[in-house]
Amino acid sequence: MNYLNITKYIYLLVGFIMAYDAITNWNQENKPWLSIMLAIAAFFTFFFRNSFAKKFEAQKKEQNNNPQK
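The structure assignment produced for this chain is given below.
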């Protein structure tokens, strides 16, 4: 489970790197559309995994508080 908590921050790091790459290369003749798309995908994946992890933890707490008979 600890591994999954670390990987979501790797997506955030990749998103910032791709956003930085897109900003620094914006004035070139070929626009960095691939970097922009990868940055958006990385940020979306981070927020999706973060919300999914919170839901999973809430469900785990609920199961621990209400043991079935």
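Interim note for the steering committee: The mean pLDDT is 90. Residues 33-65 form the longest helix (33 residues).
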